[in-house]
Write a structure and sequence with these properties.
The complex is a heterodimer of chains A (about 140) and B (about 375). By secondary structure, chain A is an alpha+beta fold. Helix content of chain A is about 25%, strand content about 15%. Chain A has a four-stranded antiparallel β-sheet with strand order 1-3-4-2, covered by helices on one side. The radius of gyration of chain A is 18 Å and the shape is globular. In chain B, strands 3, 4, 5, 8, 9, 16 and 17 form a seven-stranded mixed β-sheet that branches. A six-stranded parallel β-sheet of chain B has the order 12-11-10-13-14-15, sandwiched between helices. Chain B has a two-stranded antiparallel ribbon with strand order 1-2. Chain B has two domains: about 220 residues, Alpha-Beta Complex (Quinone Oxidoreductase, Chain A, domain 1); about 160 residues, NAD(P)-binding Rossmann-like Domain (Rossmann fold). Chain B contains 14 helices and 17 strands. In chain B, helix 6 crosses helix 13 and helix 7 runs parallel beside helix 8. Chain B is an alpha/beta fold and about 375 residues long. The chains are: A alpha+beta (about 140), B alpha/beta (about 375).
Chain lengths: ~140, ~375
């Protein structure tokens, strides 16, 4: 139980310039400097006890790409539902409001949520479900 | 391999596509023997579903023979004849452990798309776009089956393919409709829609002891089937006042349980009520059968929604739900919960389904088979393909 923070890179908001045009200026908060408020936690509930979610304090494989970019928090879920696994980016809120960031595919919350889901799937089922390969990636072969 | 592919709105073609392959250790590959059309395919066919791409293979209700298994598959081996649940579910998450398989947390490869559409990701479904997993459909010579030990069930001999294939989707959907409705001995049950799901809901209600089962549709041949195979009374909704008829047949109380099994509304249905004729027929769908079910149901009764409404509905009688204290249920089928029991009922001839396969065609006639099914032409209830 407890907080497992890994210091490191703040998730990028690379398309910031492209997105500013989408934002109504009157609604934006003053941009005198970076927003230092902490970002929102993204949370999944994993149907396993905490010691199986982070065995020995180790991050499950699907979470490792976020090492250094997020802090993790976990606690038992109420009602015997397993473990609430939370993550949020280090370094405060991204510059863009959620919908604008989402529209250009630069939403750290979405990326973290997807990664948490893969971690949950890995812990619960033993692997991450893989999509069918695209037709472009493989030839037509008769069985 | 050959497969029936969506080519664009209203257009299908049988094409050569790559064979499926094992992508996860719990996968298996099935050679498809029978694959049925379903009303849930019609919004896809019409091009009303986001993220469906030209070349995607349709179909989700199927039965076949195992040809290859992944290293983690324990329950099946090559040569087994299996029926595969249309819902892709992991069997390991909290929802699956509660028996809510269609709500599985791990049944999709792109859960964020379902989250955008419905607020939460749901389990997957074959032959649907990425919001429901992005798995190729079963109208093909072969299909990949993820979580094979959870979603595939050995079909007992000598159960006929054309009976057992409906254990994949229509039969569990119908059974679940009766179960969610809490049908008990002595109940009056009304079912809107005499397609495969409606007829199997009626059979399930009968098996659970309902005193009267009333099926509502406008296709005489379907209504006749409901009478013959489900022991139901029937109403032709274009020839009678359905709510008044239901009041009369339920002692003025209204049915205890009302099940909507209509699926996609047919073209032109939106003008059935005065409200629709006067109002703007915009983009929102009119849930006509659900409205009638809510209006007709007895106070404190239960309304179950089984049909596939792809998005938003308009003019929904919410006030009636509150004033009458109704319980409203909806779900995609949790087939893994019911399929073993349904196969036993089928093997004992207590549940019959083969009459629903009114048109049995080779896969090469896929486009024509869907045209028959979509238009309810030639008495078609379901087209079943043999790849």
């Amino acid at each position: 139980m407890g907080r497992l923070a890994h210091g490191g890179t703040v998730l990028a908001t690379a398309a910031a310039g492209a997105v500013r045009a989408l934002v109504v200026p009157r609604r934006r908060r003053p941009t005198t400097g970076p927003d230092r408020r902490p970002a929102r936690w993204q949370v999944v509930t994993v149907d396993r006890p905490p010691e199986q979610v982070l065995p020995g304090g180790r991050w499950p494989e699907p979470l490792r790409p976020l090492d250094g970019a997020v802090e993790l928090y976990l606690r038992p879920a109420p009602g015997g539902r397993g473990t609430e696994l939370s993550a949020r980016p280090l370094g405060g809120r991204p510059e863009l409001p959620g919908m604008a960031a989402h529209l250009v595919g630069d939403d750290p919350g979405l990326l973290i949520r997807e990664t948490l889901r893969r971690a949950k799937q890995y812990v619960e089922t033993g692997e991450v479900l893989r999509a069918d390969r695209s037709r472009l990636d493989r030839p037509v072969v008769r069985r | 391999m050959r497969a029936l592919c969506w080519e664009g709105a209203g257009a299908l073609a049988v094409r050569e596509v790559p064979d499926p392959e094992l992508r996860n250790a719990a996968d298996m590959i099935v050679r498809v023997r029978r694959s049925a059309t379903c009303g849930a395919d019609l919004p896809l066919l019409a091009g009303r579903t986001p993220f469906l791409a030209a070349g995607d293979v349709l179909g989700h209700e199927f039965l076949g023979e195992v040809v290859e298994v992944g290293p983690e598959v324990r329950e099946h081996r090559p040569g087994d004849r299996v029926v595969v649940c249309a819902a892709v579910s992991c069997g390991s998450c909290w929802y699956c452990r509660q028996g809510l398989y269609a709500s599985c947390d791990n049944g999709s490869t792109m859960p964020a798309r379902a989250e955008a559409a419905w607020g939460q990701p749901t389990g997957g479904c074959y032959g649907h776009p990425s919001a429901l997993g992005g798995f190729a459909g079963s109208h093909a010579e072969y299909a990949r089956v993820p979580y094979a030990d959870v979603g595939a069930f050995t079909v007992p001999e000598p159960l006929d393919d054309h009976r057992a294939v409906f254990a994949s989707d229509a039969a569990p959907t119908g059974w679940m409709g009766a179960e969610l409705g809490g049908v008990r001995p002595g109940d009056v049950v009304a079912v809107w829609g005499a397609g495969a799901v409606g007829q199997l809901t009626a059979q399930a209600a009968r098996l659970r002891g309902a005193a009267r089962v009333i099926v509502i549709d406008r296709h005489p041949e379907r209504l006749l089937m409901a009478e013959l195979h489900a022991g139901a009374e029937t109403l032709h909704f274009e020839r009678t006042d359905v709510p008044a008829e239901l009041r009369e047949r339920s002692g003025g109380r209204g049915p205890d349980v009302c099940v909507e099994a209509v699926g996609t509304e047919p073209d032109g249905a939106a003008t059935r009520s005065l409200a629709d004729r006067l109002g703007d027929v915009g983009r929102a769908e009119r849930p006509l059968a659900v409205r009638e079910a809510v209006h007709s149901c007895r106070k404190g009764g239960t309304v179950v929604v089984l049909g596939t409404f792809s998005g938003f509905v308009d003019t929904f009688p919410l006030g009636s739900v509150m004033q009458k204290g109704l319980t409203l249920h909806g779900a995609r089928q949790h087939g893994q919960r019911y399929i073993p029991m349904l196969l036993r009922l089928m093997a004992r001839d207590q549940l019959t389904t083969e009459h629903l396969a009114t048109h049995r065609l080779p896969l090469e006639q896929g486009p024509a088979g869907y045209e028959l099914f979509r238009d309810r032409a030639d008495g078609c209830v379901r087209t079943v393909f043999a790849p």
